[in-house]
Write a structure and sequence with these properties.
The complex is a heterodimer of chains A (519) and B (403). Chain A is α+β, with helices and mostly antiparallel strands and 519 residues long. Helices cover 35% and strands 19% of the residues of chain A. An eight-stranded mixed sheet of chain A has the order 8-7-6-18-19-20-17-21, with helices on both faces. In chain A, strands 12-2-1-16-22 form a five-stranded parallel sheet, with helices on one face. Chain A has a three-stranded antiparallel sheet with strand order 13-14-15, with helices on one face. Chain B has 403 residues and is an alpha+beta fold. The chains are: A alpha+beta (519), B alpha+beta (403). The interface between A and B is medium-sized, with 16 and 19 residues.
């Protein structure tokens, strides 16, 4: 069998890219090092009969264009819940539940009235940034007509916000979310909501500059036509990868699991295939890597084939995660103080204040995990009972802040870390510890080892102004092509970045196909 | 904040760094005439640069090379590292040989030039003008190689001139006559040894002597005695050396090219092609930093070119602007002198293409001369010639002629 394109890595972006390439007639082979496809968009069994999203657990950004083009619904992507509530729990019984513009619970009347206005405004600004998602980052110089049009479109889109909202965008774009929240609100729990969406999955605290941009970035996502909606895929996040896989398979994409690529074969500045760990050489005219750029260019291509300055830029990408993942198998539905049945079917944010989130960030800067982390919890088995044995449940929690590099190393620190997280969880859901029948904790080091997330960072690199658009992953490789001819990147490290979005994979496929047309 | 500066006065170096030869050189430097060289005490001249220049061409000159930046590069992947760093094919450089080479940034612009000494299969010394540790360490990532700045551990003297071989023979260096140009060898000297390479910056017969700082003064004294019968060994400064290097057609950093990592203004850095150094670029050896950019430049054509020019008259044209038809500004003289040996007014000129390649005639240098407190402008015709301006056969003769 000979292939025109090899995609290294079957993460959701790799699968998206492969499906689009196959859609336009390419013969594509996807090589995945793990025994399971999907990368960080996967479902795994953490105890016999208990299945849960390994890593990412909420879908809010999967691009509608991709869902439509690849007919992911026909390929099995279903949702057990489409637009779930977010409930902030302070742990002492105080709670605030939000669904889109509606906020009920512990919130002042003034803030409750202000919330829909604020949220609509943020969504409007984010909406006007949407055109950039499916646009290849424009070159700084030497742009062609189509790039100028893209840029014009984005510029026009931002301009068309209207004078007041554009001013607000310019004011807040580089701001921190702590100040933004304080600008609009007094009630503690609403501030938690706003800042949690900005910092989850990043290495930012609420007071870190650029955290507002992170919030807007997240809000550019829409699901089933509802901007800012969060959904639970039926069967966990693996359902998304499964659908992408089938969308590719029907178009002839071949997938080989357990095939780790040792080396990308490069001669005279051109890639011509890959060599796997078993020594097998597979040739193809194009190689597209879903792995991060440092692993792709330094480990797989090799320093001797790339320029030193480029290698330095690639090695300096800020990509040190501060987010861990805790998955629990439970014999009973946990009892979260202050949460009603509806709240348990949605997303829970566990912390009492925005200040507490900032305090939780502090130790992470100095090689320690927070003993009181911000937790984003979902119990997907509430709406998708098939994930656990009858009456039992699975809980999925994102633990915000545990640094990639921890004092004494994660190998020895995982146990005490787990104890701290469980004790913290117990504070919000008394008795939960007694119902645990299985635990799966992934530290940032585990996330790197298992899913190839560089530095354990969920987005293959911090989503910050210095690492976005034409600077993502680095200048000189921002348009999916690398300095090595015929070698492309399609991972979350590329524009527009991480989250289960697929846009990087889509844009990469477009860049690969454009090259073919140009040739 | 409880931070306070606690630096012991005796750990802070004030003023210029001495070289191991300073005790001999300082008394001779009657006018305390110094030139800047990476913060070292380095003479510009010893009172009479013309006399020093003529020592280079007529007897033997000696120049303190100790401030030269020197890096020891060794390890199993030293060659692979240098192959990726340098534009030249380092695999062709055999142990015991020296090569002149340049290295570029990603944009294919020259960061610096220097001489690379291959001391062994896995061991090199790089000599250059600018500090390069940052770039070398940056380039070393991913290679099994160690890089060590040995500038202060190795001192050097450049012995240049027609009688230099005879001086070395008188010094007692066995079989030094078999040392070929760009060859290096260890010779026993005193209780230890010194390394001698047949290299230099003058385009003449000459050698560079490298030793540990402890041997510096014995070596200096021995050279002075050895030179007594050959017209002496004349200490020279950088002014005389600069004249010789222009005659030899050699380029200098900050003179004829701006080191790419220090250039602030867009377009100031130069590629090897622009510096007339395409003979140093090997596209067939595999990848090296700047290769893609240089291939693109080769395809698209360079923007500038460095040429050697013969300038009418005898007024040195250093830094003069060059005009086409006395009208259009097309470049400038980057280094220019009246050449005492060639008896010509010479210069290296950086010209905007196509001037210097397809348009080579009707070029004029705008020279200003001060005449009793009044500036006078001369338009002097420039003729593009081949460098070097002076190349004696003794430069390459092995064995060299004896005196």
């Amino acid at each position: 069998m000979s292939y025109s394109h090899i995609v290294i890595g079957a993460g959701h972006n790799g699968l998206t890219c492969a499906a689009y390439l196959a859609k336009s007639g390419a013969k594509v082979l996807v090589l995945e090092a793990r025994s399971q496809p999907g990368g960080a968009a996967a479902t795994e069994e953490i105890a016999p009969g208990y299945r849960v999203s390994s890593c990412a657990h909420l879908l809010y950004q999967l691009h509608p264009r991709i869902m439509l083009d690849l007919a992911l619904d026909r390929h099995g992507l279903e949702f057990s819940a489409k637009n779930i509530t977010t409930t902030v729990l302070a742990g002492d019984g105080a709670a605030l539940t939000m669904l889109d513009g509606k906020a009920t619970g512990n919130i002042s009347e003034k803030d409750a009235q202000n919330w829909p206005i604020f949220w609509a405004r943020m969504k409007k600004i984010a909406r006007h940034l949407q055109p950039m998602l499916l646009m290849s980052p424009p070159r700084l110089a030497g742009r062609d007509l189509s790039q100028n049009l893209d840029l014009l479109k984005l510029g026009w889109s931002i301009r068309s916000l209207g004078r007041e909202d554009m001013r607000e965008f310019l004011r807040i774009a580089a701001m921190n979310v702590y100040d933004l929240a304080a600008d609009y609100f007094d009630s503690p729990l609403i501030k938690v909501r706003i800042s949690a969406d900005a910092v989850l999955g990043t290495t930012l605290g609420p007071r870190s500059p650029g955290s507002v941009l992170s919030l807007l970035y997240k809000l550019t996502g829409a699901l089933n036509g509802v901007q800012g909606a969060m959904a639970l895929p039926k069967g966990g996040m693996g359902a998304v990868s499964g659908a992408l896989l089938r969308a590719g398979a029907v178009r002839g994409v071949d997938l080989r699991l357990g095939q780790r690529v040792r080396r990308i074969i490069v001669a005279d500045g051109k890639a011509s295939g890959v060599e796997t760990d078993t020594g097998e050489i597979i040739e193809a005219a194009n190689v597209i890597s879903n792995a991060d750029i440092a692993k792709t260019m330094v480990s797989m291509v090799g320093a001797q084939h790339i320029d030193a300055g480029f290698q330095r830029d690639v090695s300096k990408i800020r990509s040190k995660g501060a987010t861990a993942k805790l998955n629990l198998a439970l014999s009973a539905l946990p009892n979260f103080t202050g949460a009603d049945a509806q709240a348990l079917a949605g997303r829970l944010l566990l912390t009492e204040s925005i200040e507490q989130i900032e305090l939780a960030f502090n130790p992470a800067k100095y090689g320690q995990w927070s003993k009181h982390p911000l937790l984003e919890v979902v119990i997907p088995s509430v709406t998708d009972p098939a994930l656990a044995p009858a009456g039992h449940h699975v809980l999925s929690a994102i633990v915000q802040y545990a640094p990639y590099q921890v004092e004494s190393g994660w190998a020895s620190q995982r146990e005490p870390f787990q104890r701290d997280v469980m004790a913290h969880l117990e504070h919000f859901a008394p008795g939960i510890g007694a119902s645990v029948v299985g635990t799966d904790l992934k530290t940032p080091a585990d996330l790197e080892a298992q899913f190839g997330l560089p530095g354990g960072h969920w987005h293959h690199g911090e989503l910050a102004i210095d690492q976005l658009l034409m600077l993502r992953p680095v200048a000189g490789a921002a348009r999916y092509a690398t300095p090595v001819e015929n070698l492309f990147l399609c991972g979350a490290g590329c524009h527009p970045g991480g989250g289960v979005m697929g846009a990087a994979g889509y844009n990469a496929a477009r860049a690969v196909l454009a090259k073919r047309q140009a040739a | 904040m409880n931070y306070s500066m606690k630096i012991k006065p005796d750990t802070v170096r004030v003023g210029l760094k001495p070289t191991p030869f300073i005790d001999r050189l300082r008394p001779l430097n009657k006018f305390e005439s110094l030139a800047y060289w990476q913060g070292y005490w380095s003479p510009a001249d010893f009172g009479n640069p013309e006399r020093e220049y003529f020592a280079i061409r007529n007897t033997t000159s000696v120049f303190d090379l100790s401030p030269m930046t020197k890096y020891r590069i060794k390890g199993p992947q030293a060659e692979a590292f240098l192959q990726r760093l340098m534009t030249r094919n380092i695999a062709k450089l055999k142990p015991g040989r020296v090569a002149y080479t340049v290295w570029c940034n990603d944009e294919g612009k020259v960061i610096d030039d220097g001489t690379l000494f291959r001391l062994g299969p896995q061991e090199f010394r790089l000599c250059c003008q600018e500090h390069q540790l940052f770039w070398l360490l940056t380039s070393a990532a991913g290679f099994d190689v160690s890089i060590h700045d040995e500038t202060d551990e190795v001192c050097g003297l450049s012995l240049q001139g027609p009688t230099s071989y005879s001086v070395l023979r008188a010094l007692g260096l066995a079989a030094v006559e078999t040392l070929k140009p760009f060859e290096l060898r260890d010779f026993s000297f005193g209780p230890g040894s010194i390394m001698v390479s047949r290299t230099g910056f003058t385009g003449d017969l000459g050698y560079e002597l490298w030793c540990a700082p402890g041997q510096a003064l014995p070596l200096w004294d021995a050279l002075q005695s050895a030179g007594r019968d050959f017209g002496g060994v004349e200490p020279i400064g950088s002014t005389a050396l600069d004249m010789a290097r222009i005659e030899a057609g050699f380029i200098g950093a900050h003179l004829d090219f701006m080191p790419a990592d220090q250039a602030v203004r867009a377009g100031r850095a130069a590629s090897p092609f622009e510096l007339n150094l395409e003979w140093l670029v090997d596209f067939n050896k595999g990848h090296f930093t700047g290769r893609a950019a240089l291939l693109a430049e080769q395809k698209a054509g360079s923007k500038r070119c460095l040429v050697a020019v013969d300038i009418e008259g005898n007024k040195p044209a250093n830094h003069a602007l060059i005009y086409h038809r006395k009208k259009t500004e097309v470049g400038h003289i980057s280094s220019g002198i009246w050449s005492p040996t060639a008896k010509r007014n010479i210069g290296l000129a950086m010209l905007q293409m196509p001037y210097g390649k397809s348009i080579t005639s009707d070029l004029w240098a705008e020279i200003y001369v001060m005449r009793e407190l009044k500036w006078e402008k001369r338009m002097a015709k420039c003729t593009i010639v081949k460098a070097p301006f002076f190349e004696p056969a003794r430069r390459r003769a092995t064995p060299p002629g004896a005196y």
